[in-house]
Inverse folding.
């Protein structure tokens, strides 16, 4: 008995050592347990009949209600495409126009990074997670205080995201509150994000006149207009509608300028259920889908086939107060339902998830961020925006929470990947060899050693030690570990910064607020 126990203990110890050694070896990209663009789509809160009913309601809303407040240029584009301008000033969309637009709209989009290794293929159920949100406050995790965001904070967020494997793109997560001039703020936002990451960047513009300046900067960064147009690595997050069912006149003009400049567009409809969108989840999906289809007609009227992301971003209200509740289960359902409608039309799309109502990265934030991020991934959402770092229903951003979110999203991606079933994974021969004349356990098995790399993801910061080991390690604190990682990243040279000649050219042309 003792000899058998010794052999088993020795076998387990050897197995642990072998597993540690195997896990330390670098993996080829195709063997990584999780990576950008994993296929989701297994979670479907809407039945086929429900999606058909929503689609019919969308067509009715566009044909009978339409959208108000299109700019004169938009009226010309839309009526030229077949929309109808009513005597009440509303643009209405015949069913045939909507169906024709869906049929000819671009179904596959590549969002480029400055580094081609960060390119994202948007189609089908391929899932990517990233930042967004435009928070006005940064959370100081040591003092637990909220303060106004600065240009440096935005740049720091981009630098940190650049080093996180499970953050696939960087849409502006904060507003530079220390820059009061809107033009300079928009241009410095582009500079700060692009100088911090070689991943794809999303941003917005306050006025259409600022787009030309931003494009000039992007041409400098890219090495010329031709190189920019070949690989546009920044997209325009465009709130082209003011829900319910009105065009945002200035934003539409921004969108037209971005399309002319070769910049991909995120058609962003962000109604709030119970306030600027219907309270029922299905009704909020109907309105957001209708608004985005109107935007899709607009984009394709300006330039057929221009890359446009179907950005249904309806949010949830706590109907007791009217306040936004981005961390609710209803928000998770709403986002997953929107993802299904993207697939219904075969359009590349994005929506919001990962938002916490919690003010700090605590247990409440953990369940709020995990629930919606996992459901978004399982639903096959192409672009999961606001997936990390967002607190207080988008009012606050936390750099430490961004780092913790990388671990959380890794788990969400592993859920998204699902369970592979084939001759090897059902493991019949491994079970046979283990149980009949074998060691009676799988700890040192060849399959275990190979699968531990390809099938399992291991958190970078989360603690899985035993209570005894935890005490021996002086009870490590998760937030403190995130803070240490933040300080390490920010203490090193930013690999995404521009070469000195390019940076000097940008600074000569524009008033850059970030120190060189």
């Amino acid at each position: 008995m003792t000899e058998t126990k010794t052999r088993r203990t020795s076998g387990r110890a050897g197995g642990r050592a072998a597993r540690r050694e195997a896990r330390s070896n670098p993996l080829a990209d195709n063997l990584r347990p999780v990576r950008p663009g994993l296929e989701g789509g297994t979670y479907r809160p809407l039945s086929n009949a429900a999606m058909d009913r929503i689609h019919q309601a969308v067509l009715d809303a566009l044909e009978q209600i339409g959208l108000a407040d299109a700019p004169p240029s938009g009226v010309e584009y839309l009526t030229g495409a077949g929309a109808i301008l009513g005597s009440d000033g509303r643009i209405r969309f015949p069913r045939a126009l909507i169906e024709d637009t869906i049929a000819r709209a671009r179904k596959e989009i590549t969002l480029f990074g400055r580094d081609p290794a960060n390119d994202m293929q948007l189609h089908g159920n391929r899932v990517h997670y990233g930042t967004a949100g435009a928070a006005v406050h940064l959370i100081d995790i040591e003092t637990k205080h909220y303060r106004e965001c600065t240009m440096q904070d935005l740049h720091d967020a981009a630098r940190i995201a650049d080093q996180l494997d499970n953050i696939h793109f960087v849409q502006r997560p904060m507003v530079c509150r220390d820059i009061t001039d809107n033009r300079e703020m928009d241009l410095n936002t582009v500079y700060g994000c692009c100088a911090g990451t070689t991943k794809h960047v999303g941003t917005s513009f306050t006025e259409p006149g600022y787009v030309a300046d931003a494009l000039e900067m992007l041409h400098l960064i890219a090495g010329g207009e031709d190189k920019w147009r070949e690989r546009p690595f920044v997209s325009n997050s465009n709130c082209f509608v003011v829900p319910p069912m009105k065009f945002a006149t200035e934003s539409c003009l921004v969108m037209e300028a971005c399309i002319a400049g070769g910049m991909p567009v995120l058609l962003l409809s962000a109604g709030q259920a119970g306030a600027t969108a219907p309270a029922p989840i299905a009704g909020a999906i109907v309105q957001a889908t209708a608004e985005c289809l109107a935007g899709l007609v607009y984009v394709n009227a300006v330039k057929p086939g221009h890359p446009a992301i179907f950005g249904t971003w309806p949010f949830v209200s706590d109907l007791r107060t009217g306040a936004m509740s981005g961390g609710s289960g209803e928000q998770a359902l709403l986002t997953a339902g929107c993802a299904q409608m993207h697939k219904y039309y075969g359009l590349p799309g994005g929506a919001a998830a990962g938002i916490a109502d919690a003010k700090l990265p605590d247990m409440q934030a953990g369940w709020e961020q995990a629930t919606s991020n996992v459901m978004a991934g399982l639903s096959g959402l192409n672009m999961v925006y606001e997936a990390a770092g967002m607190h207080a229903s988008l009012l606050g951003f936390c750099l430490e929470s961004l780092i913790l979110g990388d671990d959380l999203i890794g788990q969400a991606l592993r859920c998204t990947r699902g369970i592979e079933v084939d001759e090897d994974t059902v493991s019949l021969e491994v079970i046979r060899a283990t149980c009949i004349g074998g060691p009676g356990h799988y700890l040192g098995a060849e399959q275990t050693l190979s699968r531990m790399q390809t099938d399992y993801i291991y958190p970078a910061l989360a603690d899985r030690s035993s209570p005894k080991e935890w005490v021996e390690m002086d009870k490590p604190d998760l937030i403190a570990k995130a803070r240490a990682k933040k300080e390490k990243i920010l203490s090193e040279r930013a690999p995404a910064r521009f070469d000195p000649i390019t940076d000097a050219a940008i600074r000569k042309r524009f008033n850059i607020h970030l120190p060189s």
